[in-house]
Amino acid sequence: MELYKENKLKIYNSLSKSKELFKPLVEGRVGMYVCGPTVYSNVHLGNIRTFMSFDMVYRYLLHLGYKVRYVRNITDAGHLENDADEGEDRIAKKARLEQIEPMEVVQRYVVDFHNVTNKYNFLPPSIEPTATGHIVEQIEMIKEIVKKGLAYEVNGSVYFDVLKYNETNRYGILSGRTIEDAIHNTRALDGQSDKKNPQDFALWKKADERHIMRWPSPWSDGFPGWHLECSVMSSKYLGEQFDIHGGGMDLKFPHHECEIAQSKTCSGVSPVNYWMHANMLLLNGQKMAKSTGNFVLPNDILTGNNDVLPKDFGVGVVRFFIMQAHYRSILDFSGEALLASEKGYKKLIEAINLLDDVEASSESTFNVKEWRQKCYDAMNDDFNTPILISHLFEAVKFINQLKDDKATISKDDLVLLKSTINAFVFDVLGLVNDVEEHSSDKLDGVVELLIKLRKQARENKDWALSDQIRDELLEKGIQLKDGREGTTYSIN
Ligand SMILES: [Zn+2]
Known about the structure:
The chain has helices at residues 45-63, 90-98, 102-119, 135-147, 162-168, 179-187, 228-238, 252-267, 298-303, 315-323, 335-354, 368-380, 385-403, 411-428, 435-459, 463-475; strands at residues 10-13, 18-21, 29-34, 67-72, 151-154, 157-160, 201-206, 222-224, 242-248, 272-278, 281-283, 286-287, 331-333, 478-483, 486-491. With 492 residues, the protein is of the alpha/beta class. The chain folds into three domains: 3-278, 3-Layer(aba) Sandwich (Rossmann fold); 282-428, Isoleucyl-tRNA Synthetase, Domain 1 (Orthogonal Bundle), CATH 1.10.730; 436-491, no CATH class. Helix 7 packs across helix 8, helix 11 packs across helix 13 and helix 12 (368-380) runs parallel beside helix 14.
């Protein structure tokens, strides 16, 4: 269904700092690039929030009927410490500390990243290219920039000439930073740099003896600068100009600014039509940091294995909680807030489950069409998921009235209500229907425990206790059945 034809989607463009009507370059098709993780440690919860925001964007574009090519890269080389041009490669450093191959580091944390994104019900991107898989293309792009006169070589390293670029373009167009700001950002780290000007950034770095991740190039054995891979891979898979580029707010400068400069130098056109940035995540009102203990890994939220949250939470609850904030707002992650979300999430899922038992009447006491349009209007307004969720709860209220015979719904409206709420909750927000499963899992565990205790009682010839367990369970509607394979139970 080409729902995009009747939906006027507006996207907040970080470049123009305003909401703009979304018009893809090719009708019905969207090219979207999102900066992926640097795989040198377990994926950070803040990054998961960013990727979940773009998972939701991807899901809504698909729901609207767009054919989307979604590219999210894996940075497995070239990302130096402090996001600067000096210092050690993050992956090589980890490899040195743990005495393993850099590619073992990459493999371990790519697997971790995919585990987490699978658990959290992310749709996989269409292409997930790696920096090390595109060294040849990166060298080609550097040659092109050198040819255009906007890069220079010093001692085997190649730097982008920001001042020269800024003569005919505006470096800082996205972040609003000036050339002077850029100097401030880099000066402290630039003690031994070969750069002509401190705001220049590396396209290729010559590797010193210590640096084990290296490739041959016309300039030296070395490695590409971090910003280059995204220009290379986005243009390779999406073209010189494409629709949406996303990432975390912290990537606006210098990373995305440098991407624009590199790409525009090669193609002559501004590479991205809509820049989108997801805001940051706090934990208990503070920045997350391992060093202070104010830290939790995405997996440990699900298992409860952490010191900062009161209990374990299901995937549906965590996704629901994150979607309750707009992607451009700061999100404060806390146990209290998650507990509140858990209640709301259960209400929502239980109402959806109730819909299966609703019987249609001749008339509706709720305007389903109008409600449906309000859901679309919320999402069309720069993916406003908190407003969407508030509309979903109007439907929850109505469904509960239906259950109590305080409202009625026609057959057509019932079909429309079901399909709409399912589409928004499961396809667009990516929530999972795990409420019942979650509680029945727990019941299972408790009854199995009682069966085990009863078996022990019988082995000890404590017939009174054994009968008490069986009888009291039966009173509560749980019947134990002793068979050759052991004891099973059924709920009456
Ligand atoms: Zn990037």
